[in-house]
Amino acid sequence: AKHAGLVEMSEMLPARRARGPNEPGGLSFGHMADIVQTSRKFRDDPCKIALETCAAASMLYDQIWLGGYMSGGVGFTMYATAAYTNNIVDDDLYASTEYGWDKYKLGVGKNVAPSIDVIKDIGTWGTLYGLELYENYPTALEDHFGGSQRATVVSVASAAATSIATGNSNAGLS
Question: Tell me, what CATH number does 73's domain have?
């Protein structure tokens, strides 16, 4: 596309995977967070901001770029995953964020230092909460077939909640 050649926001992927500069796979996660404009309308809802950014990144990286171009397609199940896991991811993220905020007396704009204990605490709580949802609702467990879908749902929520509580995106990656 003409506009993609003019914007030049993306980096080149590693040589064995690259087609050229400015390809979608080279768009950094930091740019994705800026591209998604949810923070302009919902400043006081960091969970919604994280969810919308994750949805856009999933669409661009997993479904379009890495899923379609790199692996030759991932099939309908991965294309539909975002739609039928949506409420569970939302519930897990909001619950995990509230846990972190309540335990460490935080709120919007207030963060706790990202120590390994804090990261393990919020991450473990969020993961257990997400897995308990699957135990409490067996139809969700059946619907989200395959461990990779369940792992993605639980890890997205736990990682985002940890990042929101600490104000550090790298803490969520731990």
Answer: 1.20.840.10
